[in-house]
Amino acid sequence: MSTPPMMNGGNVPMGMPHRKKMMMHMTFYWGKDALILFTGWPGNNDDMYMLALLLVFFMAVIGELLSYCNRVMMKSNGATSGLAQTFVYTIRVGLGFMVMLALMSFNVGVFLAAVLGHAVGFFCFQVVMKKKDDLMSTTPC
Question: Membrane-crossing residues (predicted)?
Answer without folding.
Answer: 83-103, 110-129
